[in-house]
Design brief:
It comes from Flavilitoribacter nigricans (strain ATCC 23147 / DSM 23189 / NBRC 102662 / NCIMB 1420 / SS-2) (Lewinella nigricans). The protein has 155 residues and is mainly α. The protein has one domain: Arc Repressor Mutant, subunit A, CATH 1.10.10.10. The protein has eight helices and two strands. It has a two-stranded antiparallel sheet. Helix 1 packs across helix 3. The two termini are 19 Å apart.
Length: 155
């Protein structure tokens, strides 16, 4: 299972914006410098995050990107879906049919049930995690996430 570069960098950009001064925001150039990514890639990711309603842009000399919602209302599952979609999607089986038009296991597939269960477990965790849970230092985030998982019987 892989998390895409778009998922990783998009989430990191969102965290950088969340950590910035809300009155000022961060420009594409500032985000590029902070994350070591090209301006073009930052522009692509901020466009996706803006269209999804997580950030908004401000114009002017001190213009940049700011959060469109409070950090406790930005659910990580929603962010990752906007950036790249789910790990397992219903059309997965149509995309991996081998040399045939229809997968030989399309009627009865134990592997599909595995991927569906993995997706459900991941979704259960990610729908409980907000940007607020990730905004602090790593050790603080680990602690907050462990508490969240234990409180929701997700471990």
């Amino acid at each position: 299972m892989k998390i895409s570069a778009q998922d990783e960098y998009g989430l990191r950009i969102l965290l950088q914006i969340a950590r910035s001064e809300p009155e000022e925001g961060l420009s594409i150039a500032q985000l590029s410098e902070l994350e070591g990514l090209s301006n073009a890639y930052i522009a692509k990711l901020t466009r996706t995050l803006r269209i999804a309603g997580f950030i908004s842009s401000t114009r002017g000399q001190k213009g940049g990107y700011i959060l469109a919602k409070p950090v406790n209302e930005i659910i990580i599952k929603d962010v990752l879906e906007a950036l790249g979609g789910a790990l397992f999607q219903k059309d997965f089986c149509q995309d991996y049919t081998g040399g045939l038009k229809l997968c030989t296991n399309s009627v009865d597939c134990s592997v599909r049930s595995l991927w569906q269960m993995v997706q459900m477990a991941v979704d259960r965790v990610l729908e409980k995690v907000t940007l607020e849970d990730l905004i602090g230092k790593e050790k603080d985030s680990i602690s907050a996430l462990k508490k969240l998982l234990e409180a929701n019987a997700l471990v």
